Amino acid sequence: MPFNDPHTAAQSLWVWNQSEGWDYECSVAPILVDKVPSEDRRRYLEGIEAFLLWRYHSEKGESPLCNHGRFHPNYTRSRNRKTGARGRYVPDLDSDAGLSSGKPLEKHGNPSDGDWMNLDWSDWYPLDRMGLTRLKNSPSVYRVSDGKEIVYIGQTKQTKSRMRQHIARFDSNNLYVSVSYLEEAIPHRMLEMENDLIGSFIETEGSIPRLQFSNMF
């Protein structure tokens, strides 16, 4: 099995080829970035990817088989090349990564609404130590605002711990967080929800959240 680097999708594609004998085709579309500042081009392309994955999930009812960490249920994953640890077939593994996609979120409302995408969002709490006291350490999707607009969308298995990391990493003055707690914490389904939110935001607002795909979060 390939290692997890340089591209994490390689091992998933390899696994399905080995288990099902699948061959693959590739289709590409040129993206013009001449008018995008060089420092923003990576964010721009990742935003387009997120938008396309959101549309695919919405129209097909499932995400692509090798996106968001989806994997064959009977294989472990390879780690990075420097570890030398390759994934392998384990007949009785039956991992959560092999479960089906989660149901796509339905477009509803605006990104700052309390029922955006038909989720039950909390009030806005300051992203500081006092705000932490209002949060549970449960799985959630969350949105961060500067008081005027959404600047970041994320997901986490431990909400309070993740917010504590954000506070420690950067100056969070004048930022606020709103969360929607989740009943399950299956990684690829949480990532699908996060991407649905990002993709819907891009479709509604015509832009990428300002701190999304940056090194700050």
What does this structure look like?
- It contains 5 helices and 4 strands.
- It has 217 residues and is of the alpha+beta class.
- It has 2 domains: 61 residues, no CATH class; 146 residues, GIY-YIG endonuclease, CATH 3.40.1440.
- The chain has a 4-stranded antiparallel sheet with strand order 1-4-2-3.
- Helix 2 packs across helix 5.
- It is globular and about 50 Å long.
CATH class of the largest domain: Alpha Beta
Shape: globular
Q: Enumerate the spans where pLDDT stays under 50 for 5 or more consecutive residues.
A: none
Question: Helical amount among residues, as a percent range?
Answer: 25-40%
* H-E string: HHEHEEHEH
The strands making up the biggest β-sheet line up spatially as: 1-4-2-3
Mean pLDDT over the residues: 95
Structural class: alpha+beta
Can you tell me the CATH superfamily of the largest domain?
A: GIY-YIG endonuclease
Approximately what portion of the residues adopt beta-strand conformation? 5-15%
Cα radius of gyration in angstroms = 19 Å
- Number of discrete domains: 2
How many beta-strand elements? 4
Specify the CATH architecture of the largest domain.
3-Layer(aba) Sandwich
Helix count? 5
Question: Could you give a short account of the major beta sheet?
Answer: 4 strands, antiparallel
Distance between the termini: 31 Å
Instruction: Find the CATH topology of the largest domain.
Output: GIY-YIG endonuclease
Key words describing this protein structure:
217 residues; 30% helix; GIY-YIG endonuclease; four-stranded antiparallel β-sheet; alpha+beta; 2 domains
